[in-house]
Amino acid sequence: MNTQVCPYLGTVDDQRSYFPTPDVANRCYAVASLQPARAALDFQESVCLAGHPGRCARYVEAERHQARKPAPRLLAIGGSLAGVVALGCCAFLAVLVLALGGLGVSRLGLLARVTDTPTPAGYVRGAAYYGGENK
Q: Which residues pair with 38 in a beta bridge?
């Protein structure tokens, strides 16, 4: 006996387990996972449990349906031209906001400028000692 059992065979209570011999509690989940179909005992013995799922019309249809499912995409936008343009616009706006935000912060005086170097406290008083003038 071939040990390859139909992957869609399960029990009434659990889709992932099955009875290894024909049983009325075994169900076919190939077409509908919420309402599994009953499989006749002789059909279970000759097809489902015998390693010949390709002989079952429900199995063939389920496999055909699985093959038609699109592959999951990593990006929600996709690889279309519109998606690339939208992504480029978002990147441009982000750079623009960062650039304008940096200018706004420097104008508010939150960033130190090169010309904002404080004058030493002793410069005015000590200028007369070095020949300088007090202003």
A: 27
* pTM value > 0.70: no
Q: Looking at the DSSP assignment, which residues form a beta bridge with residue 27?
A: 10, 38
Q: How far is it, in rounded angstroms, from Cα 95 to Cα 109?
A: 22
How does pLDDT run across 8-58, given as a tens digit for each residue? 999 999 999 999 999 999 999 998 766 889 999 999 999 999 999 889 999
By the 8 A CB rule, do 33 and 53 touch?
A: no
Taking the C-alpha atoms of residue 49 and residue 37, their distance in angstroms, rounded to an integer, is: 16
Letter string b/e over residues 116-134, b meaning 16 or more CB atoms within 10 A of that residue's CB: eeeeeeeeeeeeeeeeeee
Whole-angstrom CA distances from 29 to 23, 50, 100, 118 are 15, 17, 59, 80
Q: Are 82 and 75 contacting, i.e. CB atoms less than 8 angstroms apart?
A: no
- CA dihedral for 97, 99, 102, 104, sign (positive or negative): negative
CA dihedral 24, 25, 31, 33 (to 10 degrees): 160
Can you tell me the distance from the alpha carbon of 110 to that of 99, in angstroms, rounded to the nearest whole number?
15
